[in-house]
Amino acid sequence: MQTEDSTYADRLKTLQFARWKQLLRVQAPYQANLRRQGLGRTLDVGCGIGRNLAVLSSDSVGVDHNPTSVQIAREAGYTAYTVEEFEAAAYPKESFEGLLFAHILEHMPTDDGVALVNSYLPYLKPGGRAFFICPQERGFASDETHVEFVDGTKLLSMCDRVGLTPDHVRSFPLPRMAGKLFTYNEFCLRASKD
Q1: Quick one: 20 exposed, middle or buried, by C-beta within 10 A (0-12, 13-18, 19+)?
Q2: Does Methyltransferase show up as a keyword for this record (predicted)?
């Protein structure tokens, strides 16, 4: 399975809208964590079907290389584009207060991740924030499309390579040791553009 085909988008939809997840509101702590970052108007890079767009400010924009995912996000009422559509829309540089890279960097080799961040960094205002979320070990193993494990050290190195000033890496929602067993434990890092 590749992340750009409709099968992947359908998988995301099935996972997100599982009845038990809706009843237990399992996304609530993750949504609260994202809100706490104070990202403002955000460009959600790798937005998928729009799960995080539901939490970000209403003027936020998503971009994804999977056209089926983008269509699902649009049907939910979010502003989302394919990569080509986003480029054609010609958003001005420095037009976003935040950039979000949630569960995307682990889908590519490190150098490709650096190139991806660099390609969207011009859209971030000076003083703006980038927020990175990557799965820990159990989450990484749960998806066959994951390519490279991205831990806190790699996130800090990436920030250095692209010129962002990072805060400290956090393990969320549980302490770091839980990441080997709990699928949904994540590395989170917020960084700022000088």
Answers
A1: exposed
A2: yes
Minimal CA–CA distance to 68: which of 112, 3, 21, 152? 3
Integer Cα distance of 178 and 83 in angstroms: 35
Nearest to 60 by CA among 72, 70, 47: 47
Its domain, for residue 117, covers 6-193
Domain total of the chain: 1
Instruction: Please state, in angstroms and rounded to a whole number, the distance separating the CA atoms of residues 185 and 112.
Output: 24
CA–CA gap between residue 79 and residue 93 (Å, rounded): 18
What gap in Å lies between CA 5 and CA 10, rounded to an integer? 9
Q: What is the pLDDT along the chain (194 residues), one digit of tens a residue?
A: 577 777 775 666 566 655 656 666 778 899 999 999 999 999 999 999 999 999 999 999 999 999 999 999 999 999 999 999 999 999 999 999 999 999 999 999 999 999 999 999 999 999 999 999 999 999 999 999 999 999 999 999 999 999 999 999 999 999 999 999 999 999 999 999 99
Residue 1 located in a structural domain = no
Is 25 part of any domain?
A: yes
Q: Are 150 and 187 in contact (CB under 8 A)?
A: yes
We report the CATH number of the domain holding residue 47 as: 3.40.50.150
Residue (of 133, 132, 138) closest to 179 by Cα position: 138
